[in-house]
Amino acid sequence: MKANWIKRTIWVSVFLLLGIMSYGCGSSGGLDDVGGGIALFASPDIIPADGSSSSTITATITTTGGVPITIGTQVSFSTTLGRFSNGSTAYTVTTGNSTGTVTVTLIAGTTEGPARVTCTAGGASQMVEVFIGTVSIASIGLTADPVSIEADGVDSSTIEAEVTDSLGEPAAAGTPVEFTTTLGLLSNGTQRYSTVTNSEGKATTTLFAGETAGTAQIACVVETVRSVIFVEFTVP
Q1: Which one of 3.80.10.10, 2.60.40.10, 3.40.50.1000, 1.10.1370.40 gives the CATH number of domain 37-132?
Q2: Between 20 and 30 A from 40 (CA), which of 5, 135, 159, 233?
Q3: pLDDT in tens, 134-190
Q4: Does domain 137-234 have CATH number 2.60.40.10?
Q5: Whole-angstrom Cα distance, residue 154 to residue 120?
Q6: On the CB side of 193, how many CA atoms lie within 13 Å of its CA?
Q7: 5-14, 35-44, 125-134, 135-144, range with the lowest pLDDT
Q8: Which of 138, 128, 220 minimizes the C-alpha distance to 172?
Q9: pTM for the predicted model, two decimal places
């Protein structure tokens, strides 16, 4: 009887050990508990609706503590407009390196509008928006500081243009901007000055007073949009 009790004890111990090993080595099917989240980016975030232009969607997935997700984790993408390189609005890939980063390509169709691209991995999801279509300049906010300067040949005013596109966003960096004035001189010593917007959609020039009193009309033109502002040149 004692021998049988020992055998039963050994078998129970073996089963318990196998169960523990099975639990520790269980497969997640390529899906880990993300915890840390998904960083999702689109470049560029505006593409023409020409049926061929594309945007690269990059997702970096991390677990709790910022550790990159394991290799082989399934990552799913979906879009509300356009298509992925597999010709569908849904695309699933797996992480292939230790950085936890995957990329997919979003290809424009011929319908304009916002494409909302969602990335899902494990229990986390993130969305990024790509505008498919033509973006034009909608408005120019023009300011002068100060609005009155002395006509002494030295005094000056800073002219700033804040350019907004048809999506209500700052114009893209590098958008051409042209300033002109009817009185005084601009930054380059002439009455016409060309520059480009910065990353905030802004462009500036300096208006220098001459020695003639009067009202300077400063115009700013971006694409087909024009805005004007006035600066007074007063007698010293």
Answers
A1: 2.60.40.10
A2: 135
A3: 989 999 999 999 999 999 999 999 999 999 999 899 999 999 999 999 999 999 999
A4: yes
A5: 61
A6: 25
A7: 5-14
A8: 138
A9: 0.67
